[in-house]
Amino acid sequence: MAQREEVRTKSCTIRPEATDELIPRGPGIGKDDILRTRSQAFSTVISVDARLVCATLRSLEKEVEAGRFRADLYYRIQGVTLQVPALRERPSDIAPLVAQFVAELSAKHSVCPPKLTRAAMSALHSYGWPGNVRELRNVLELLCLLRAAKTVRVQDLPAPVRQHVVPGPSPQSRSIAEPNRD
User: Fold this and answer.
1) In sequence order, what are the residues at sequence separation of 6 or more whose Cβ sits closer than 8 angstroms to the Cβ of residue 142?
2) DSSP assigned state of 94
3) Percentage of the chain with pLDDT > 90?
4) Strands 173-175 and 151-152: what pairing?
5) Rounded Cα gap, residues 58 and 74, in angstroms
């Protein structure tokens, strides 16, 4: 336990100016108390080279304007901004993601990959993916574990995905690794 605590403290730095955001205030608790506790708890300073990756669904610019996010903190973390559209807005990414995830997850769990019918693949394309890529990955992990080396039909998909099925061609099986030739 002591070793785990040591690792945790070595990988954590509390900057004095960030304590207002990170630690709730209460009667008798001030920044000086926090810093004094910090200086007593940590006797060694360790330099680290770190990069901060932030993700949010909110517009931080609007949050700053509304006073719900500190402007100085916003400008400290602002760097390269990537705006990745939701998976539902880029359906052409679904097939390559399915192939990639099934390969990775089958290897991770040491199982043979499942085979999706065209109807099952069509259902994956028709679904809106409110959980985005994480939800797709979780669905595929479930299929890799429960349908390893078997055919995945529409009825094998989770209920929310099944409910968005669009009638299509015959439910022939094809390997996930095979390109869609339709």
Assistant:
1) 158
2) H
3) 47
4) unpaired
5) 13
What does pTM read for this prediction? 0.61
Q: What is the pLDDT of residues 153-172, one digit of tens each?
A: 999 999 999 987 766 554 44
What CATH topology corresponds to 87-175?
Answer: Helicase, Ruva Protein; domain 3 (1.10.8)
Q: pLDDT tens, 46-61?
A: 777 777 777 787 888 9
Residues 6+ apart with CB under 8 A from 105: 137, 140, 141, 144
* Cβ atoms of residues 131 and 114 within 8 Å: no
Cβ-proximal residues to 37 (8 Å cutoff; 6+ apart), any chain: none
Domain borders along the chain are 1-50, 53-83, 87-175
In degrees and rounded to multiples of 5, residue 178 shows phi and psi of -75, 140
Q: Average pLDDT of the chain?
A: 77
CB hemisphere CA count around 54 (13 angstroms): 15
